[in-house]
Amino acid sequence: MMTTSAESSRVLEVRNLYTSFRTRRGVARSVNGVSFVLERGRTLGIVGESGSGKSVTLMSIVRLLATPAGRIENGEVLFEGKNLVTSSETEMRHIRGSKISVITQDPMTSLNPVYTIGNQLEEPIRQHQRIRVRDTLRRLAVGALQSVGIPAPEDRVSSYPHQMSGGQRQRVVTAMALACRPSLILCDEPTTALDVTVQLQILKLLRDLQKEHGMAMIMVSHDLSVIARVCDDVAVMYAGRIVEKASVSRLFEKPAHPYTRALMRSLNAETDASGRLYAIEGQPPNVRNIGNGCPFAPRCQSVRSECREHFPHEIALSPGHTTSCWAVMEEAGITAPVRKSV
Predict the structure, then answer these.
(1) How many Cβ atoms are within 10 Å of 123's Cβ, its own excluded?
(2) Is residue 172's pLDDT more than 60?
(3) pLDDT digits over 253-268, tens only?
(4) Burial call 149-162: b when 16+ CB within 10 Å, e when fewer
């Protein structure tokens, strides 16, 4: 079978992914039929409220779910053509850190407080590149710190995490993630704990390093302004489902799904007739009892009777711009089948 140029440029393809957690109160399906494609050198933003399934989607990709409660129920995660869902744990340990790296929102959870920065930078290089020469490891660690803009890297390799600022620690975590030149970087709200000025510096650093090394990247955030600065494409998640996908420019110019429009109104700090800041009414649904309909229906101002009964397949509004919404389909005069639940 011949491989097309479009397929060869794909780093990651997630197909109909379902992830759940078993709790004392029942099964919580945190990821509910998620699908997307990521190409080399591009950045996909995943945006949505807290609890929408963004971080669980990332952890499902690298199989770092809390076990035994968390498990992938169904679907495929194709990384460079290999299905990670069916890969052995030995294979995953080789892939994590060397081919796929994760940057978390709190660097203190990624850095060991009792080891120096140099020791922690050297570890992934030692494990994945099989380098054992001490001087070579130290030189590579210094170079990694230098590449992310840490001043006096020769001295900083001997520092401990508590001796560095929050922004410097995030740069260290970024250096660790890039130490083995991975094909894919997964960023789980990497700037949430930082002040605005440092946020901008870290986002620019990630974007510059991505362009330099040609990596693909997924940026998870609840902040649309972060997504706008860094990403090429956006997937909007709500209660475990992707409700809209588009390029950044298209999404900000013509958001289609009612939830996306509501997020935009919140971002723009719009006010209602009484002068109060706009807020989405109601609360996100309980993912332990999500039902078959659109999860946004109870909070949606464009709700239809079909919305409460069935979740539709996604429809294409323009090349690269898709959504799953009965109201949008009705406005566009499009008929589409409902999506079957697993």
Answers:
(1) 17
(2) yes
(3) 999 999 999 888 877 6
(4) bbeebeebbebebe
Which pTM does this prediction carry? Answer: 0.89
Tell me if 98 sits within 8 A of 128, measured CB to CB: yes
**Coil, helix or strand for 86?**
helix
Tokens matching residue 66: 């809390």
Structure tokens at 253: 């110019």
Tokens of 192: 């949430």
The mean of the pLDDT values for the chain is 88
Q: Which domains does the chain have, with CATH numbers?
A: 8-99+180-332 (3.40.50.300), 109-179 (no CATH)
Residue 280 has pLDDT above 60, yes or no: yes
Place of tokens 């035994």: 68
Burial class (CB in 10 A: 0-12, 13-18, 19+), 171: buried
Neighbours of 144 (CB within 10 A): 27
Q: Enumerate long-range contacts of 194-197, CB under 8 Å, 24 or more apart.
A: 194/166, 194/167, 194/170
Nearest-angstrom CA–CA distance, 264 and 248: 12
Give the position of tokens 């979740």.
311
Q: Among 144-148, 167-171, 197-201, 243-247, name the one with the lowest average pLDDT.
A: 197-201
- Distance, CA of 135 to CA of 85 (rounded, Å): 38
| Matching residue, tokens 């052995």 | 88
